[in-house]
Amino acid sequence: MLIRQLSPVTINRIAAGEVIERPASVVKELVENSIDAGARHIEIVIADGGLSLIRVSDDGHGMGPDDLAMSVERHATSKLSEEDLFDIRSLGFRGEALPSIGAIAHLEISSKAAAARDAFSLAVVRGAKGAIKPAALNSGTTIDVRDLFSATPARLKFMKSQRAEAMAVMETVRRLAMAHPAIGFMVQTGERKPTQFSKQSSSPDGLLVRLGDIMGRAFMDDALEIAGGASGASGPMRVFGFAGLPTLHRPDASQQYLFVNGRPVKDKLLIGAVRAAYGDLIPRGRSPLLALFLEVQPSDVDVNVHPAKAEVRFRDSGRVRAMMVGALSDALAKAGHRASARGGIMTIETFEPGVLPHMAAQASTHDGFAEAMQAPFDGLDAPSGDARAGVTDVPEALLDRPLGAVRAQVHENYIVAQTRDGLVIVDQHAAHERLVYERLKASLANGGVATQGLLIPAIVSLECDDADILVSRADELAQLGLVLEGFGEGAIAVRETPALLGDTDIEGLVKDIAAELRSIGSARALRDKLEAVASRMACHGSVRSGRRLSADEMNALLRAMEATPYSGQCNHGRPTYVALKLTDIERLFGRR
Length: 592
Hints:
Layout: H1 8-19, H2 23-36, E1 41-47, E2 53-58, H3 65-70, H4 97-104, E3 106-112, E4 119-125, E5 128-129, E6 133-135, E7 140-146, H5 162-179, E8 184-188, E9 195-197, H6 204-215, H7 217-221, E10 223-231, E11 236-244, E12 249-250, E13 256-260, E14 263-265, H8 268-278, E15 287-288, E16 290-295, E17 301-302, E18 313-314, H9 317-334, H10 342-350, H11 357-363, H12 366-373, H13 396-399, E19 405-410, E20 414-419, E21 422-427, H14 428-445, E22 451-461, H15 464-472, H16 474-479, E23 483-486, E24 491-498, H17 506-520, H18 526-541, H19 551-563, E25 577-581, H20 582-588
Helix pairs in contact: 1-4, 2-5, 8-9, 14-18, 14-19, 15-17, 17-18
């Protein structure tokens, strides 16, 4: 078969196949053009999931008739210099979106240049370009796309339901709205009333409000500001945004938003940096909530490695990753003992005002009601006892501490403390587990964990495979203060244990560590393995549920939590305490 040149119509349809995957792809390209045009307000309207209509209107600087005619030609753009293909300073730049859309749909563009008196329009119907005509438009640009994929009907078979396509459009707009809080957005998908994202300031506070509009109030309440910088190959770079506390996590990464120079991306390097920074602070299989914005010199990033510009490639990926991990780790460490505000809200929501069941039963009969009414009331105006946890006088200064002053221990596991404006409930086992774990990690980082020798080695019987795993990892375990050796088939001898653990259940500890090593396998790095084992150890060295503590012990635990990073969540990512404001408690009783 002879080699021949394809027709322009076919070329445009092939290009459309690369650029236009679904209606959301069209919305992304058109909204990015509006942003590049300096728009301060953008409206998006779709019908039938975007297959029958997509309309994007903006108040940007618009186009005159000459630019309007050129905008639908392939590889025509005002955003790219031929001298430097890697100096990309705009979102859309390759000049493929409009001609590609026009090749597979009915495209109509109306635009008015900022200083012009008249507006003009141009239609492209399945690749056929019409003439420039006068139009009625106050300012900016309006683009209508109708009957998407009508020139390539086979693509329609791959579309999802109209609702699913509308949801994809909405998600695309959300991501672009996050990156540009100073722009107002309105989205009408036809299923409900329009979604509005009002203009915000470009300050961190304005960004957080925009993120809260999209990610929810829970994220706003538990968000940590992220800020970091470094020197790239061609100049400075920085990362900023907000990340949720470790206790705020989801089973998927659907609320992890990452941006590079204002462009939403799904980049493996950045996702890996997030995972490394959160590390052992969240449960396995869970993902933190965050929105992070990376700004680098245009020449230090290649944004053209993917047709939809969803992936990027960095010139110095190691430095970018280090900056990301450092900024996130610093913010998480500075959060200290802070736990999710959602814990207190969920606690309040569990209370249902009403009468006690046994009281309701009494009131159900006349005799019971009468008997209750005749009960003596003598002495109720005086204290009947002291129910505090052995505390006679609580120092006023402790009430101003973040976790307050101890008032009681209930069910031999929960510490109740009073603050100046509320109360705190602490899970003593979970809290102490995190404290022991952080001490083990600090000792490991400083050269090794202090050990305590056993007068008589403890012999532990195991499955042969588990014994072999432990013996093969003996050198690594020794760094954590656990000194052991093989003791015949299916047994090991433990000679030293970490001093931090005190008098611990050695057999249980060893078996748990064997299970941890078995689940880790050989894929993870040495440090990750050691920290995973340290987490298991910490569980054995912590204050157990069911142990009664004195007031001094409980107050000491609270003070240690306040001084220890990440103590707001245990090693498994669960909160170690919940805080209730006095105003919330009063609201339960109708006082507010």
